[in-house]
Specification:
single chain; 367 residues; alpha+beta; Phosphorylase Kinase, domain 1; Aminoglycoside 3'-phosphotransferase, Chain: A, domain 2; five-stranded antiparallel β-sheet; 11 helices; ACAD10_11_N; AGP_Transferase
Length: 367
């Protein structure tokens, strides 16, 4: 699935020239083993490489990962890509948090070097569950033992708890401040604005999303708790694991302030999204992984926090993901990878599940 119209060789040449400064290299830097990670990166351009330069007559090598904001012509998934904010969030989590993030190398937020802003970090060892194809169809997590999968499930909850424990997130990350407004309302308003932005070129309304927005408004949570740092894209596919333990937490482009349940709902729903795809293909998938009751119970045990009105946040996760999926569908159409669906709801791969969630007929797995 394409995310850019830029040439990878051109990007790597420009990045190599820029890296001399951040790496404090005495001479030119070259990039070798340049590759795009398989099965990941649905919104921005991510590529991996080895940076090499000479120092004292010897070749130094440092594995790197670069994230480049997509150009406007490639139908980006989000209205804006604030890589400076992502960089600052990762830096704050590294300094004050309890979860592992890759060491940061540098950022060009101007876009002058490559034509788009980018950030560079160390490439960390480990592997993550795949997105494309989803990990429910096979791979190391699928092949793991039940105890090993449970270790990944619980460790992922621990990552969420660690992110949510970042002290004074609004002070440490003023760009995330809601200016005294309710954090959930601000988060929700950005989601509705994202939906309206996605309609800017075709004006198309998606009934299943608009019905769900109305449902969410009518059932607004009574008590949202103290806002915390919300990771945003909170799922195992954005974590590198070694020996079934987190080694690095990645992809902070959806970070914001908000209730803890935003991340918990996203984690649970995104697994069910993949599991529903597997079951529709008559593949067993991983029905016992990341079940809602297990995730909630583990989080409450780890933190002492009582999760509130979780059904609302599960619908909200499905809506947020629906907005993202509708824009990904538009981009696939733009690149000739998808025929436009006749029904607007067809732009949302999980439109049937979202409809059942709103109607209260979605069948969640039980223990």
């Amino acid at each position: 699935m394409r995310t850019t119209e830029q040439d990878l060789d051109e990007l790597s040449r420009g990045l190599a020239a820029w890296l001399s400064g951040p790496l404090a290299a005495n001479g030119p830097v070259s990039l070798t083993n340049v590759q795009v990670p398989e099965g990941g990166g649905l919104s921005s351009v991510t590529f991996l490489a080895d940076a090499e330069w000479r120092e004292g007559g010897r070749i130094r090598r440092r594995p790197i990962a670069a994230r480049v904001a997509p150009e406007n012509s490639s139908f980006p998934v989000f209205p804006e890509y604030d890589l400076r904010l992502q960089y600052d969030v990762m830096a704050a989590v590294a300094r004050h948090g309890r979860v592992p993030v890759p060491p940061l190398i540098g950022i060009d937020a101007t876009g002058r070097t490559l034509g788009s802003p980018f950030l560079v970090m160390d490439r960390m060892p480990g592997e993550k569950p795949g997105d494309n194809p989803p990990y429910v169809f096979g791979g190391w997590l699928y092949d793991a033992s039940p105890d090993q999968r449970r270790a990944v499930q619980d460790a992922t909850v621990d990552v969420l708890a660690g992110i949510h424990s970042l002290p004074e997130p609004a002070t440490r990350l003023p760009a995330l401040s809601t200016g005294g407004k309710d954090a959930l309302r601000c988060h929700y308003d950005r989601t509705t604005a994202h939906y309206e932005w996605s309609r800017r070129s075709d004006g198309m309304r998606i009934p299943v999303l608009e019905n769900a927005f109305a449902w969410l408004e009518e059932r607004w949570p009574r008590d949202t708790g103290e806002p915390v740092l919300s990771w945003g894209d909170a799922r195992p596919g954005n974590i590198l694991y070694e020996d079934f333990a987190p080694r690095a937490v990645l992809d902070w482009e959806m970070a914001a302030l908000g209730p803890r349940e935003i991340d918990l709902g996203w984690y649970v729903f995104l697994h069910r999204f993949f599991q529903d795809i597997a079951e529709s293909a008559n593949v067993p998938g991983l029905p016992d992984f990341a079940r809602r009751d297990d995730v909630v119970e583990t989080y409450e045990d780890r933190t002492g926090y009582r999760v509130r009105e979780f059904d609302w946040y599960l619908v909200y996760a499905a809506v947020r993901h629906g907005v993202v999926m509708s824009q990904i569908a538009r981009r696939m159409i733009h690149f000739g990878e998808l025929t436009p669906p006749e029904d607007p709801d067809g732009y949302i791969l999980h439109h049937e599940a979202l409809d059942r969630l709103v109607k209260g007929t979605y069948a969640w797995p039980t223990r």
